[in-house]
Amino acid sequence: MNVRRSAAALAAAAVIGAATPALAASPSPTPSVAIPDGLYGTADPTYDGVWRQSLALLAQDTAGVVPADRAVAWLTGQQCANGAFAAFRADPAKPCDAKLMVDTNSTAAAVQALTALGGHTARTGKAVTWLKSVQNADGGWGYNPGGPSDANSTAVVTGALVAAGERPEQVVKGGKSPYDALLTFALPCTGDGAGAFAYQPDKQGKLTANADATAAAVLGALGQPLNASPKKADATASGCAAPTTPEQAARNGARYLSTALAKDHHLVSALPGAENQPDYGNTADAVVALAAAGHTDEATAALRWLEANAPQWAAQSGPAAYAQLVLAAHATGTDPRAFGSTDLVRLLDATGPAPKQTATKKPEASDTSDDDGSSTTLWVTVGAVVLVVLVAAALFLARARRRQQP
Fold it and tell me: CA 136, CA 216: separation in Å to the nearest integer?
């Protein structure tokens, strides 16, 4: 069963989730708080304000968009004095207190977004310091400080560390790093869910395969942030072996996701009392993980399914959903402005303040050179040589005429 849950359940269950699968086209409930100026989306931000803002800004950055100053200011204004972020602070002018539930996921997502935008080193440095201070003895993180480690939270924090220039293997607590923690969630290559990751062990210590946790943990084990770029196809990616290293665990997890996507090119969400249905958000996350792991063909096939089926889900779910699709497109080298027949960037931009600057299309490679400008240089050189020859010939002819004159 997928652990991606609604925003209200997310706050209680402490699970990383950008957007929930749309079950039907129904009107959004009236927000319990006023929507702040600068925030993306119109849904209640109580449980996902910082997360969706961070994803939106990160996705815009991958697409060459410069967001509005007030959109960035809203996110930076959510940070507490100790560096942490909560899911949402209705009154940023009020100092954070012990009653405010800060969390690792919001903090890690904000670090990744602000690092990508640049110019926020002091803020991201404080956030990273706070994340290190709440690391568990097993090397991982739970959603809330002091909570048991889970694969999703550990993965998104690992991505934040990498984005901020840290080396996760050197961020240790009790002699354990985030990579050590992620390995404890990796299933063996035999039995149900072979090669996958679990969200957490159950009370008996049993690990159960979870596609959402697997997509997150593959990125974490590879040391990749949420805006991962595509990796060259890996010839070793098809085999499953004992997950004794983060790299091997990531390969195993990618193989599990590839198998899960093989038939229909999408993952499913099973909800109590309801039939299985497509999980668009988890499929988008799986595309990013597969592309980062070098499973190019599988990632591309799932992306094509998303192009044909996910835009309506994103329209219902809001900016975080659009951001997930933009990040999936980015991970596969696809132009998010030509996502099937949908311009994801334009639609994402429309959910928040008008950007300061937005590119109209994906930058195209020059067709006048290889990848180093050598062809252009060659023609410039040839032209210069020809010019010198012509000038020399002209001088020679002029001198010859002068000699022939009486």
Answer: 19
Model pLDDT, residue 360: 61
Percent composition of the chain: helix, strand, coil (DSSP 3-state, to 5): 45, 5, 50
Q: What is the pLDDT, as a whole number, of residue 128?
A: 98
Kindly state the helix (H) or strand (E) to which residue 269 belongs, with its residue range.
strand 267-269
pTM equals: 0.83
Largest CA distance in the chain: 113
C-alpha 81, offset from chain centre: 26
Torsion (CA) 210, 178, 153, 330 in degrees, nearest 10:
-80
pLDDT at 276: 86
d(CA 183, CA 181): 5
Q: Flag residues of the chain having pLDDT under 70.
A: 1-30, 234-238, 270, 272, 360-406
Report d(CA 84, CA 134) in Å as an integer: 10
Give me 189's structure tokens.
């290559």
Say how far apart CA 6 and CA 20 lie, in whole Å. Answer: 6
Handedness of CA 21, 271, 49, 288 (dihedral sign): negative
**Backbone phi, psi, residue 110, to 5°:** -65, -40
Asked whether 72 and 117 are in contact (CB, 8 A), the reply is yes
Given a contact cutoff of 8 angstroms between Cβ atoms, the answer to whether 300 and 333 are in contact is no
Give CB contacts under 8 A, 24+ apart, made by 3-9: 3/152, 3/199, 3/210, 3/212, 3/213, 4/212, 4/269, 4/279, 4/281, 4/282, 7/43, 7/44, 7/46, 7/47, 7/48, 8/47
pLDDT score recorded for residue 361: 54
Pairing type for strands 102-103 and 267-269 reads unpaired
Q: Classify residue 14 by burial, with Cβ atoms within 10 Å: 0-12, 13-18, 19+.
A: buried
Amino acid (one-letter) located at 68: A
Question: What is the per-residue pLDDT for 2?
Answer: 33
